[in-house]
């Protein structure tokens, strides 16, 4: 498996070996050495190849799974799940609709944070279930979540956020959450 020739584990480094594995995998993805859907070595194979404990490799793979960089396929092994967004700060920007005002905010935000980050724009069309599905789908995949919350109630009146949305937003760690444009939401803790 040519994955081994790219993985770099330094015995003399003060950095824990499981972090070295995570860093090496993400670095090689950003360099293009590892491709989407490429099979990764099993936990046992990697631990044998580099003389590491199984727990060390398990810990590294757990972090890679949480970041949605690798996916386990039952009975098959681990595969590279995504090849972009890895070496930069990843931001999910959720807006209710595209308007010139929202695009100005989005563009100004991207301009101010510079090139060391990647921002994905997702539009939820004031739809509560679509918003909740997006949050669930991308849970843990981003470093920061920016939310401009505007929803429509059952009688098509505008509302800041239904209770289910507030509950979902409150599950995002506050240090990763940025609320814009609407401060009427009852978010627990300090943002």
TrEMBL record:
Keywords associated with the record: DNA-binding, Transcription, Transcription regulation
Entries under Pfam families matching the protein: GntR
Family annotation (PROSITE patterns): HTH_GNTR
HTH gntR-type domain mapped to chain residues: 15-83
Signal peptide start and end residues: none
Record-level Gene Ontology MF annotations: DNA binding; DNA-binding transcription factor activity
Protein name: HTH gntR-type domain-containing protein
């Amino acid at each position: 498996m040519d994955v081994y020739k790219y993985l770099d584990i330094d015995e003399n480094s003060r950095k824990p070996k499981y972090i070295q594995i995570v860093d090496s995998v993400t670095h090689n993805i950003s360099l293009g050495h590892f491709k989407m859907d490429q099979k990764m070595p099993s936990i046992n194979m990697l631990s044998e190849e580099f003389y590491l404990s199984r727990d060390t490799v398990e810990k590294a793979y757990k972090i890679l799974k949480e970041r949605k960089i690798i996916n386990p396929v039952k009975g098959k092994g681990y595969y590279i799940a995504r090849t972009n967004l890895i070496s930069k700060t990843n931001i999910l920007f959720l807006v209710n609709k595209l308007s010139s005002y929202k695009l100005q905010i989005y563009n100004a935000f991207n301009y101010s944070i510079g090139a060391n980050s990647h921002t994905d724009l997702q539009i939820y069309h004031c739809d509560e279930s679509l918003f909740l599905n997006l949050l669930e789908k991308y849970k843990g995949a981003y470093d920061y979540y920016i939310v401009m919350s505007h929803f429509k109630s059952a009688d098509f009146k505008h509302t800041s956020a239904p209770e289910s949305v507030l509950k979902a937003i409150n599950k995002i760690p506050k240090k990763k959450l940025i609320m814009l444009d609407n401060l009427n939401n009852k978010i627990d803790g300090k943002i």
